[in-house]
Amino acid sequence: MSIDTNNAVSIAENSNLDTSSIIASSNAAPAPQGFTAEQKRYMASLLVDLNLHVALGAGQNAAEEIGPETFWGTPVEDLCKQETAKYERHVLDIWDDIVAHNNNNQIAEGIKDFMFRHHGLFNVMPAMEGFMTRLRIPGCKLRGDQMIGLGDIAEDIAGGYAHITTRGSFQMREIPPNKILALNSALYDIGLSSKGSGADSARNITATPTAGFDPEELINLHKYAVEVSHRILNTRDLHGIPRKFNISFDNAGTISVVSDTNDVGYLAVKVKENSQGVDAGIYCRILFGGITGHEDFARDTGLICRPEDTPEISEAILRVFLEHGDRTNRKKARFKYVLDQHGFDWVCEKVQEKLDGFGNGVKMISLSRDADEPRPVIKRQAHIGVHPQAQKGLNYIGVALRLGRMSPEQMRGAGRIAQKYGSNDIRLTVWQNFLIADVADADVAAAVSELEALGMSVDANSFAAGAVSCTGRWACKLANAYTKEDASNIVDHLQARFELDSPINIHLTGCPNSCAQHYIGDIGLVGTAAEDGSEGYNVLVGGGCDDDQGLARMLCGPVASRDICQVLEKVVGNYMNGRKQGESFLAFTRGLEDSQLTEQLLA
Length: 603
What we know:
Elements: H1 5-13, H2 20-25, H3 37-49, H4 52-55, H5 62-66, E1 70-71, E2 74-75, H6 81-88, H7 95-103, H8 110-117, E3 121-123, E4 131-134, E5 141-143, H9 144-156, E6 162-164, E7 170-175, H10 180-189, E8 206-207, H11 222-233, E9 247-250, E10 264-271, E11 281-288, E12 299-305, H12 310-324, H13 335-342, H14 344-358, E13 365-366, E14 385-388, E15 394-399, E16 405-406, H15 408-421, E17 425-428, E18 434-440, H16 444-453, E19 467-469, H17 483-495, E20 506-509, E21 523-529, E22 535-541, E23 553-560, H18 564-578, H19 585-590, H20 594-601
Parallel strand pairs: 8-9, 9-10, 19-20, 20-21
Antiparallel strand pairs: 1-2, 3-4, 4-7, 5-17, 6-7, 6-16, 10-11, 11-12, 12-13, 14-15, 15-18, 17-18, 21-22, 22-23
Keywords: 4Fe-4S, Heme, Iron, Iron-sulfur, Metal-binding, Oxidoreductase
Protein name: NirA family protein
Family: Belongs to the nitrite and sulfite reductase 4Fe-4S domain family.
């Protein structure tokens, strides 16, 4: 029987029928937040089964008259296959399948692979055997003892290595299907999880890695990033949203966390005295719609909020996305397309309506950016090397990994160093490296020496410090190029020929999905087929974020992978020879017209 659940629920709500027992039996959320899709289906079916829709004035043929059954407002018959799977079974209700695949040593395939990804388990065949897992590390903060535990997991359960991701988390690979329960247990034992790290989830919540000890920060937002993450993980409706969703917290300090590439960014601002009726103080400016793979940065909504209100506002935004995201076309299902369809003002009004419905008095405040104090200058090298903290006599040490890769020995060693010389505090960054916090002046040399003995560098002026790469064809079936291998070759090739006085960020991504955000790199490489059909890249230059915001421009391509080192040697050499004294690569390329790029950089 086909039922429009919204209409059936409306019948009940507008009658004298006491629906409290119905709501209770369906595990409903508090009334101000409204009924979930599952609750609406339950109530509508119960009304028809008991023939109560007739008594309530809907007519004998109400079920047929009302129209098709819907899932979050979309007719079930119009759902794409992924949404149909989520409609038929909630993504949190597949634990028995996970157990069965573990016990049968069976990889998840097809739509089950899609569902497993909501639990952080990815079938990456044929690129690589076994599962890949991506972790959830709220605010990108780890304890040293957790890092030691992850080293053991990488060695005993995964393939003997791990990678820091561009969302300040970890990925591990080559996990046999019969070890996924052991993986879950080991992660829970050290207080971590992989749940909600893939597919249609609000991904790892990022925060500025220097939160709490940044000399320039306006406010430490880390605890709000953690609260948002836990709110999502413990709210059933917020799993299985229309597509992936990224949220970021920026303390407006020394290091960028690329908030403007997120669906929602909270940027700390200091509001000065103004004529708009807003009290001076520290707030968060709200940004919407970043998705650089679709060539869009997050834009200012014209709204600010109190930092402590960001968790509730995040839930309200996600609930608007739940109800209005496209569930028929995966290519148009991101939050950006809700904004494109309805406009920023409409979306902001809907978010405020949700907040009003929660009943806690949270308000988003209209305020132009003219009232904001200027942001302190972002230091592009500050995520690598030794830097003084806000706390006198203490330092953080930023480690430049080779494309985010760590061995179990390096993971355990970094954890021990954080315990021995720091305060057991490790931060992961969106630049695929990590920081160790709270190292006393007297211990810096020893800590650096032990890091270097593990094969890790703290050199900020190297090509390795600015190299970012997605997994690539080595382990991703979507990729068109072997980005990890090519990036390593590029770093070695360029470092042997040039000595930098300021970093050049080179971002390699294997496909247009732009997991490594090639559009914001000084040099961006995106995998494509070369003219002879081999692996290759299109080369872009001049991308940036935050104060340097701008999409990289096309320079040349496709260039075969075997030739990419020589092409980039020419690009960097022409920059070094043609620049003004101390001019950065970004400033040099931004000073060139499109028509001049090839002439100046490839001559």
